[in-house]
Amino acid sequence: MRPFALTASLLLLGACASAVPPHDPGQAWVELYTTASDLLMAEKLDGERLNDGRYFQVPPGAHELVTRFQFEVPGGGGMNMMAEPVQRTCEIRVRYADFAAGQRYRLEARPLVTSAQAWLYDGQRNVLARGKVLRCGTF
Question: Domain spans of the chain?
Fold first, then answer.
């Protein structure tokens, strides 16, 4: 039983560390970024669930991106700062009308007390769109 468990664990770790596919020059590439202690994952592109949450690759034009952002709130977000931190999850939607083929974009998120903030940047760090928090909770 132990060899099976070890093999299964190694396969799961390998899947997490697998390389991101090559960038298709006919599409726009959207990199996801947050601090190392938090987690930002791609969830949906134009209403369709994605298989790989590490990035978005989109055809030119208008698109709606939905991400899942997880972060810790010290003291559970209440008045008792000695309480254990609580893991919060926010769904954030970003809409942008002018994705261009071959261009790289960066979607950044950060916590804002018990909610979140997100921005979409172009390659020159110009803000193109701001994320809308759809919901936050401990889900």
Answer: 25-137
